[in-house]
Amino acid sequence: MVQSSRRPRAHPRAAARAAACTAAAVLLAAPAVAGWPSPAVAAGAPGPPYAAVLSVPAADEPADPAAAKEQIEKNWTAFFDPKTPTDEKAALLQHGDLLKVLLDGFSAGAEAAKASVEVTDVVFTSPTGAEVTYDLKVGDDTVVPGSKGTVVFEDGVWKVSLKTLCSLVELSGAEAPPLVC
């Protein structure tokens, strides 16, 4: 009798059963990854070594959203503060090193010297981006309430986006917006 070198084919139900067991194992372990005890842990059996994981950061925000929000508010306020030197403003603006002349132009004028902002909300759109809602003030008067702008995380710093700067240039009624806009 000649033996075949072929391996016997697995029964189709055996493959399906193996896949179902694998899926069940993943589903039972998933709550532990999210910080919830798995059914085995709840019943008193020792849990997997990764059961200590408490939370997984959302994909639409940075790893530490509270710290990021704090830096965004601080940087946004400093960028719009007329007392902030142009070089510091450039460091708080996306591609700001290329736009120092434009920033100097924004700082000119009596109204600019009294301008300020108050950040009212920050909503993350990704780990490296957020939408900022703010009130634009001149002196004690809120002249543009509920304004919207965006920030980007660039070179380890949350910066006012170029898109926001261009929107403000357009709002100012500039006859010749900068080429970057």
From TrEMBL:
<keyword id="KW-0732">Signal</keyword>
<comment type="similarity">
    <text>Belongs to the MTB12 family.</text>
</comment>
<dbReference type="InterPro" id="IPR058644">
    <property type="entry name" value="Mtb12-like_C"/>
</dbReference>
<feature type="domain" description="Low molecular weight antigen MTB12-like C-terminal">
    <location>
        <begin position="65"/>
        <end position="174"/>
    </location>
</feature>
<dbReference type="Pfam" id="PF26580">
    <property type="entry name" value="Mtb12_C"/>
</dbReference>
<feature type="signal peptide">
    <location>
        <begin position="1"/>
        <end position="34"/>
    </location>
</feature>
<protein>
    <recommendedName>
        <fullName>Low molecular weight antigen MTB12-like C-terminal domain-containing protein</fullName>
    </recommendedName>
</protein>
